[in-house]
Write a structure and sequence with these properties.
alpha/beta; nicotinate phosphoribosyltransferase; TIM Barrel; 19 strands; about 40% helix
């Protein structure tokens, strides 16, 4: 991604055409929008929220520059008064959101924006794009981590994600979801994600033979050597790893691990463990990679594969089995001429939305497991329930104490621990129904009745 690009222009064209119409007919109108999931993918029982940090940065720094204004002028459909308005634009709204690492379900606001109708409309595309990608990858990664049953998972997805920016955001999202680290150096630099890596087959092939390549690598990295043993023949590769491990021991060093990347990973891991243990190398760990995801890892765990950690790339970094979320951004209230807010709802078939400014109220049992989520109005008081949305921006300024990435990852672990076991199953979706409060249902039916007149 070109760092010189002003992301304020990452907006769908119709956001700007609507904004110009609002500028003429509703310049002082205020509105509230909810960003939420209409439904979960068929094989997901929950969503793990990510992307708020980028949303806050975008909103706080949103400015249209002269190049963008000139481009719009060249289209010749925007008025000079509106272009001047955009040139002086800065977001001044109020934002409530679920903190990153929160678990949520369908129809629950992830982000709630109250602002000028123009402001709230213009920011839609960026918010949807950001939350869609990062929450989707975080959810996928959390499933992979859960499938690994406590064994470390590393993000190896850089070369297969859809673009440069996606690769960086994927690495961050995977770490938030519980991955132990990433191969992506840029994610390490920007976010502090721990780095992890081994060697490529090309490194082995660059030397006259496998043993020479292993020895060369171990000489350079005596404290962190991981040897890729399947370039030619995994049996011989494991044997060469044993030779190098013994040579390291003579230097008071230890081979860290071997990596398996092809074939029957379960069978090869058992053979490798047997050979390593026979040679008193029980401390050498076994890392597996190669077309892994939560489904493959679950099968390996069930077959009692002797694998200590997993490097997961393409399928996790692209969320291959479910590459997008059905995330939407809908108007739920708008102000009248007296600046009183009037609730609004969409009545399209199969796309009905809930009206008004809302809050999520979560009830847990004594063990901390989520029992019930209630979608209610903002000012409701629901016994034994915790309100989840927190204020993150006021008058366009961040008022939220931003956690670092390690704190977000810890928060995420605690949230995922609150899921019932049936919601953690990966084979199929188990529906968790979010219930509307009595007051919200009453408001909904009132508006439906009014719209029928």
């Amino acid at each position: 991604m070109n760092s010189k690009i002003n992301l304020s222009f990452l907006v769908d064209f119709y956001e700007l055409t609507m904004a110009q119409a609002y500028f003429k007919y509703k310049p002082n109108t205020q509105a509230t929008f909810d960003l939420f999931l209409r439904d979960l993918p068929v094989n997901r029982s929950y969503c793990l929220v990510a992307g708020l940090e980028d949303c806050l940065d975008f909103l706080q720094n949103l400015k249209f520059d002269s190049r963008q204004i000139e481009y719009l002028r060249g289209i010749k459909i925007f008025s000079e008064d509106f272009l001047k308005y955009l040139a002086e634009f800065s977001f001044k709204g109020e934002v409530w959101a679920l903190p990153e690492g929160s678990v949520c379900f369908a129809n629950e606001p992830i982000i709630r924006v109250t602002a000028s109708l123009i402001h709230a409309q213009i920011i839609e595309s960026f918010l949807l794009n950001t939350v869609n990608l990062q929450s989707n990858i975080a959810t996928k990664a959390s499933r992979v981590v859960q499938a690994a049953k406590g064994k470390a998972v590393y993000d190896f997805s850089l070369r297969r994600t859809q673009g440069i920016d996606a690769s960086i955001k994927a690495a961050r999202s995977c770490y938030i979801a519980g991955c132990a680290g990433s191969s992506n150096c840029m994610a390490g630099l920007l976010y502090g994600v721990p780095l992890a890596g081994t060697m490529a087959h090309s490194f082995v092939m660059a030397f006259n033979n496998e043993l020479e390549s292993f020895r060369s690598y171990a000489e350079v990295f005596p404290d962190s050597t991981i040897l890729l043993v399947d370039t030619y023949d995994y049996k011989k590769g494991i044997g060469n790893a044993v030779i190098v491990a013994k040579e390291l021991e003579k230097k008071n060093k230890r081979l860290k691990a071997i990596r398996l990347d092809s074939g029957d990973l379960c069978a090869v891991s058992k053979l490798a463990r047997k050979v390593l243990d026979k040679n008193n190398l029980k401390y050498v760990r076994i890392l597996a990679s190669g077309n892994l995801d939560e489904y493959a890892i679950t099968k390996l765990i069930k077959r009692k594969a002797l694998i200590d950690s997993f490097g997961v790339g393409t399928k996790m970094g692209t969320s291959a089995d479910s590459p997008y979320l059905d995330v939407i951004y809908k108007l739920c209230e708008v102000s009248d001429n007296e600046n009183d807010f009037l609730p609004r709802m969409k009545l399209s078939t199969a796309k009905i939305t809930y009206p008004g400014r809302k809050q999520i109220y979560r009830i847990k049992n004594r063990k901390g497991i989520i029992e019930k989520d209630i979608l209610g109005l903002e000012d409701e008081s629901i016994k034994k329930a915790e309100p989840l949305l927190v204020k993150v921006m006021e008058e366009g300024k961040v008022v939220y104490s931003r956690p670092n990435i390690h704190e977000i990852a810890s928060f995420s672990r605690n949230n995922l621990a609150g899921l019932a076991d049936n919601l953690k199953k990966i084979e199929k979706r188990n529906q968790f129904t979010v219930k509307p409060s009595r007051a919200l249902k009453k408001l909904k039916h009132k508006l439906i009745k009014q719209n029928k007149k």
